[in-house]
Write a structure and sequence with these properties.
single chain, alpha+beta, 22% strand, disordered C terminus, Dehydrogenase
Length: 260
Amino acid sequence: MHPEWQRIANEFIEATSYRVGELEKGWASRYDFSKRPATYLRYEEAFVRIELGKPQFPATVDLWEVFANRRSKRNFLKQPMTLNELNLLLWGTQGITDDMGDYQLRTTPSAGALYPIETYLMINNVEGLEKGLYHLDVQNWCLEGLKREDTSEIAYLFTEEQEVTRRAAVNFVWTAMVDRTKDKYKERAYRYIWWDSGHVSQNLHLVANGLGLGVTTIGHWMDHDMNEYLGIDGKTHLSVLMASVGKIAGGHWLKDRRPE
């Protein structure tokens, strides 16, 4: 690691670390949810809104078998994903499961139930959807069309020519709206947003594997280019993780247990 990078990393860890007795007791529990930044993002200028509705849930799979056979798989077929499969992936990562009044709970945990993670989709091959860039409106549970275009080459370019992103039916791009978390947790927010994205990513892996889809997380992408493409500033709203999903040979994890 370059010495300057090491210095910056060490300073970040030190600046966001706590010591016993230096914080006022109970300060986080007194957070006023009524004054927090907006929890949900919506694009009024979207060229289309596609209502997703409640997913059609398939027969329950054995959770322990899913854990035992979870693999990152990248050899995607040209076969399209169904819209219901995409809906299941989205519900498993961002679906609202309960209303607590001041806040809503989802299928993934979030520090302080603040949910800073947003989901963008680079759609390449999903039945019933035009190719393009979409955003998930979690509150209204619909897809918002932002750009009509073939995103496969864009994803390929921004991930430094990782073939998996060009072949994927869908490339997930997760972003974090930092102020949602920072308003309560201050400097510590810059740790929490990465944890939140990890929860979301893990659920995607479990749901995709349970459905017999291939999935792999992408940690190497050109942040500046991606942020510009999404129309976000890269500071208060930044890309934090990617994942590619698609159909694979074998069809179902029970029939395809080969290691990576």
